[in-house]
From TrEMBL:
Annotated ranges, domain N-acetyltransferase: 2-172
Pfam families cross-referenced by the UniProt entry: Acetyltransf_1
Keyword Transferase assigned: yes
Entry protein name: GNAT family N-acetyltransferase
Residues in the signal sequence: none
GO molecular function: acyltransferase activity, transferring groups other than amino-acyl groups
Length: 172
């Protein structure tokens, strides 16, 4: 059975094992999501502890996908705190463990996090992703509009530069 649900900070910390496994799987699999190799469970734990703090502060929405009681996917929206951008959020870290891909979890995660962002008054979401990645191909199918590409914006975990494609979506 698949369950899509939001996590608060305490629940995020309680799910560290599954969340760290997902993040390590994605980074070690080559996903350009802000981390470099070597990437360890300690690095992943530090990241998720920071996410938990941001969720508790009300700065981040955190949604997970569970299959048969195990968390195998996650996504976040960072809520802009800038006075001139109360309507905007940043979609971050749409991650699905490689063993759980092909189950439609990305769409379910996106639908839920977008709905929650809209409920909180957000009307515009933005994201960036590595050009040519699997992730780049899915966002247009979910209604996201491609803005453009910035060359050499980030690096893959192995240190190679990668272009980054930006997207936006109006919600709510």
């Amino acid at each position: 059975m698949t369950v899509i649900r939001m996590l608060n900070g305490k629940e995020t910390l309680s799910a560290l094992s599954d969340l760290c496994e997902i993040l390590c799987d994605c980074v070690n699999g080559g996903a350009s999501v802000g981390f470099m190799l070597p990437f360890t469970p300690v690095d992943a734990t530090d990241f998720w502890q920071e996410v938990a703090k941001n969720v508790d502060k009300g700065n981040t929405i955190h949604v997970v996908a569970e299959v048969d009681g195990k968390i195998v996917g996650t996504v976040q929206v960072g809520l802009s705190s800038k006075p001139n951008q109360p309507h905007r959020g940043d979609l971050m870290k749409l991650l699905v463990h490689r063993s759980a891909r092909g189950l439609g979890l990305s769409r379910k995660l996106m639908d839920r996090v977008e709905a929650e962002a809209a409920r909180l008054g957000r009307t515009l979401l933005v994201l960036d992703t590595a050009t040519g990645s699997e992730a780049e191909a899915i966002y247009p199918r979910f209604g996201w509009e491609r803005v453009g590409v910035i060359p050499d914006y980030a690096m893959h975990p192995d240190g190679r530069y990668c272009n980054t494609t930006w997207f936006y979506k109006r919600i709510g």
